[in-house]
Amino acid sequence: MKKVITGLILLMFISTLLVGCGIKEQVKPAELTVSVAASLTDAMEEIKSIYAQEKPEVTITYNFGGSGALQQQIEQGAPVDLFISAATKNMDALESKGLLVDGTRKDLLLNEVVLIVPKNSAAITDFKDLTSDQIKRLALGEPASVPAGKYGQEILAALGIWDQVKDKTVYAKDVRQVLNYVETESTEAGIVYQTDAKISDKVKVVAQAPSGSHTPVVYPLALIKGSKNTTVAQEFSDFLVSDKARAVFEKYGFVMAK
User: Fold this and answer.
1) Domains (range + CATH), the chain
2) Which residues contact 225 (CB under 8 A, 6 or more apart)?
3) Which residues of the chain are under the pLDDT cut of 50?
C-alpha cells in the first residue's frame, strides 16, 4: 500500500512539474521593436498599454519617426520586427528589396490631410490664402522622407500654388514637428493629418484637402525579414486589427482600412 501511495505522490509531483514547465513556456519573455510613423504616436502608446494587460511577457519598444527615415533604417539593417508606415511607397520600397516577411503585409488605417493654423489666428481660411504676402512661413514635412509632407506638396501643386509658396516653406523631420511649429506659432500654418490636429488644443483646422488632390493616405504594416520574434510580432500585428485596437484608432480619428 505504501508503494502505491508513494507512486501516486511521485506521479502527482511529476504532473505538477510538467504543468509548471508548460506555463513557464507560455510566459517566456519577448521583446519587440516596432518602427512606427510619427502620426501614430498617441494611438500606439495607448494600444501598448492595453496589450501589456493581455501579454505582460511582451515588451514593446517603439521607434517613431518619418516613414522615409524609418524605411532607410530598415534598409541599413536596423533590428526591427514590425513596420507601420504612413505611405504605401515606403513599404513598396522594402518589399521590392525582399525585406518583408511574405504574406504579412496588410493595409491598416486611412487618414485625411488638413491645413492648420494657431488657435487664435484669423489670417488663413483656405489653402489659397497661403499665397498672401502676409503669410511668411508654412510648416511642411520634408517631402522626400515624410509622407504628410509629400501629400501636402501634391495638394499645393494640384491647387496650382506650389511655386508661390515653396520659398516660404519650413521643412520638418516628421509630422509631429510640423504640429509643434504651428502650436508654438513658429509658423503661421502647417499641413498635417486630421488625427494630429485632433490631439492639440492649440491649433485649429481651417481647410481639408480637396478630394483627389493627393495620393490616398494609407498606413500599411508588415513584419520585417530578419526578425527574431516573428511569432510574437505576428500576434501583435493581429491585435492591431482587433476590436480593442480599432476602438483606440477611431478614438484618435483614424479609419480602419478594412
Assistant:
1) 27-110+218-256 (3.40.190.10), 113-208 (3.40.190.10)
2) 98, 99, 100, 101
3) 1-2, 4-5, 7-11, 14, 18-19, 21-25
